[in-house]
Amino acid sequence: RRGEMAKSTQLIDNEVFRAYATYTAIVLLKMMLMSLITAYFRITRKAFVNPEDTGAFGKGESAKKYLRTDPDVERARRGHLNDLENIVPFVGIGLLYALSGPELSTALLHFRIFTGARIFHTFAYLLPLPQPGRGLSWAVAYSVTISMAYKVLKTAWLL
Amino acid sequence: RRGEMAKSTQLIDNEVFRAYATYTAIVLLKMMLMSLITAYFRITRKAFVNPEDTGAFGKGESAKKYLRTDPDVERARRGHLNDLENIVPFVGIGLLYALSGPELSTALLHFRIFTGARIFHTFAYLLPLPQPGRGLSWAVAYSVTISMAYKVLKTAWLL
Amino acid sequence: RRGEMAKSTQLIDNEVFRAYATYTAIVLLKMMLMSLITAYFRITRKAFVNPEDTGAFGKGESAKKYLRTDPDVERARRGHLNDLENIVPFVGIGLLYALSGPELSTALLHFRIFTGARIFHTFAYLLPLPQPGRGLSWAVAYSVTISMAYKVLKTAWLL
Predict the structure, then answer these.
(1) Is the pTM higher than 0.80?
(2) Which residues of C touch B (CB under 8 A)?
């Protein structure tokens, strides 16, 4: 029983894996924050999609006018979907990369650039910043994931 | 070769990891069920988005009328997207949490509340139940993921 | 310190895990490719959703006409979302499956069929191929994931 528990914690004792865990938790929490931002815009802009969500703002016909789209709500939703499209590959490929035995400094470089670029991307999307700010931050994070995938495929290749 | 196989199964021998595997499989299967529910509504409501999908219901001009949106289809799709937005962080953060050495009872509490809340959320979305049923079940599952992320960051922190 | 690093690479030394890593990297890269395909259609069809993205094509009123939807852009986006809905469960359940001690040949069969079916699905969606091509490839990949989930639940079950 003791040996089993020791085994279970060994991954988290590895420094590269600890770095992966830290940055993955940060980018997933950042992605989750998009839900709160969307909810904030839905409530302040009074723009809902489900009839049952408008109850606090009126009943019957008077509530129907809140079933509408709002540019800020849609912008936050697009930022959220873009996170899903880009953070899911980072989490999946990053795990395999962390287990492929990279140098700690190289791994940290990948994780830090990805995380910084995605946080910048969120600001660029929500403010919004003029292009190519958002486009470049998207491309930087995308390239980091490609670089990790290359290391994974080089190390693990078994087709 | 023997030692290698023993190593490969050790994670799955750990009780917290087994619990994580069980609940992750359940919530991912539940998320996959949303595809079948959307397909069911598309077929019974005859509401499609791709022209090539309407072939069974008519040809040419007569098929075009099935290229439309339907409230039940859209509701199922929103439930599916909400699952993606919330179950992806659970799967990613939950894996790191399971490897961070929590007590089995604490881990089970997290996994059970999350899974129960997300199953309730699906019923609340599809029926639909009056608010705040859906909102509360969303918030409960969200809080469980935050709690696991806190444990991961406390254990693994390496920035 | 040396022993720690040896431990960190043991998963990647396991053949089933190497196969999982290879196919997961491939399907996630394929999913990421959908972003580039969407961007390609947005630029060639001049169909954007964010006002700040139209700058290269005109200013003020003349740029507004590029804020529109385009059938090819929407088709690529639906293919991307379908990937998220199906590749996320594969990555999550596949990891647990790879750790549940399957035979290498059985695991390879699962990973190869899933990957082949999802690559076919993308072609079927984008060309598009007549149905039931896309529907069948979706169902094949879906069934592979269900089969892996069954093995995971049978091996790990701890509720």
Answers:
(1) yes
(2) 10-11, 13-14, 16-17, 75, 78, 84-86, 88-89, 92-93, 95-96, 99-101, 128-131, 134, 142, 145-146, 149, 152-153, 155-159
Residue of C nearest to B82 (CA): C85
Nearest to B92 among A28, A35, A50 (CB): A28
Q: What are phi and psi of C65, to 5 degrees?
A: -70, -15
Is the C-alpha dihedral spanning B32, A122, C126, B79 positive or negative? positive
Give the pLDDT confidence of A92-144 residue by residue, as tens digits: 999 999 999 999 999 999 999 999 999 999 999 999 999 999 999 999 999 99
DSSP code at position A26: H
Domains with residue ranges and CATH for chain A:
15-158 (1.20.120.550)
Please name which of C151, C88, C92 lies closest in space to residue B24, comparing C-alpha atoms: C92
- In tens, the pLDDT along C67-120 reads 999 999 999 999 999 999 999 999 999 999 999 999 999 999 999 999 999 999
For chain B, which chains pass the contact test of at least 3 CB pairs under 8 Å?
A, C
